[in-house]
Design goal:
about 120 residues, alpha+beta, about 35% helix, four-stranded antiparallel sheet, Gyrase A, domain 2, 3 helices, homodimer
Chain lengths: ~120, ~120
């Protein structure tokens, strides 16, 4: 159990601070399989999950979408035959917030549950 | 009614020919809002559809996924807050087949139906 996945997202305001370098190091250690991608100078968390069919991939996208709706924090979901690439970042602050790490950890939990 | 959307996909073999330049011109005229993108030398049909929420975007992705399953021909679906980018191409022939234009036209029909 990754405790991070059990945390709730807090409301993210436009003036909320991005995570510090120290927090980044600590939090990325809790979700070691996630990549940090930088697009248009915006740091994002990204991971690709693999499945045996298109419909299994889409089912996973729906589960992540449901979790996103619950927290009011939304990723991008690239659904392809046999894989889903999930990308989390905080639009309002144009970077990473603790919320993104919480949702990344929860994404891993949902993937694990769907394979148990 | 776009007649193209009423056609069925035919099985696409690895040795099936890509569409000719003439066919391309004729078929793209039937789906004028779609862009042709070339990625890794592969021609793809792409269009972004806009919605008022994340969940409406995801619902649309599901409808397209359902149509894809029915025809056994699958797109990539990039679901984001308020939009879905749909990309069609034929993996087996690394390019565009008539099937892709049929599915693009059908995608437009599904979008239109979900807004009627």
């Amino acid at each position: 159990m990754n405790n991070l996945s059990q945390e709730s997202c807090e409301a993210c305001r436009a003036d909320a601070p991005q995570i510090s370098d120290e927090e980044l190091k600590q939090l990325i250690g809790k979700i070691p399989d996630w990549n940090i991608e930088v697009r248009d100078s915006i740091m994002q968390l990204e991971k690709t999950f693999r499945f045996g069919s298109f419909i299994k991939a889409l089912t996973f996208s729906n589960k992540i979408g449901e979790a996103a709706e619950t927290e009011g924090h939304h990723p991008t979901l690239l659904t392809e035959w046999g894989k889903v690439t999930v990308t989390w970042w905080s639009h309002k602050i144009k970077g990473l917030h603790r919320n993104d790490f919480i949702m990344a950890a929860r994404t891993d939990e949902i993937f694990k549950q769907s394979h148990d």
